[in-house]
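Help needed: design a sequence for this.
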């Protein structure tokens, strides 16, 4: 009977705490992301996949008490600072987050992932890609 009472007490506490033991009213949302790889290089003259680089975005931070799973964020919208030199796909599928060099770049191109934070705002992460 003592073990049953303890089990009920623990179950009750878990139910009150909710997911992850969180008891505050602060909304869980993404507050930071990391985009990688950093400083990627591809050869625009190479056949695929030599002229491509796969980019990933991972959540790095959230408010205290919010838990998140470390996995590639599939809600990112991808963009590049020079769409003439580099293209990138935001369409779900095998090319999602894959950048392709179409010409050489004199300076690195900024690759940006924009992810919905979960509260109507966005979180942005960047990296660079050079095309030789």
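Sure. Designed sequence:
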């Amino acid at each position: 009977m003592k073990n049953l009472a303890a089990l009920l007490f623990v179950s009750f506490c878990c139910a009150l705490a909710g997911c992850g033991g969180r008891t505050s009213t602060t909304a869980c949302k993404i507050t930071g992301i990391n985009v990688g790889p950093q400083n990627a290089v591809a050869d625009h003259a190479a056949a695929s996949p030599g002229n491509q680089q796969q980019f990933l975005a991972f959540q790095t931070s959230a408010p205290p008490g919010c838990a998140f799973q470390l996995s590639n964020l599939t809600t990112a919208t991808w963009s590049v600072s020079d769409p003439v030199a580099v293209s990138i796909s935001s369409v779900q599928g095998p090319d999602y987050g894959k950048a392709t060099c179409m010409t050489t770049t004199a300076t690195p191109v900024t690759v940006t992932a924009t992810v919905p934070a979960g509260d109507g705002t966005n979180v942005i992460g960047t990296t660079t890609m050079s095309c030789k």
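DSSP finds one helix and nine strands in the chain.
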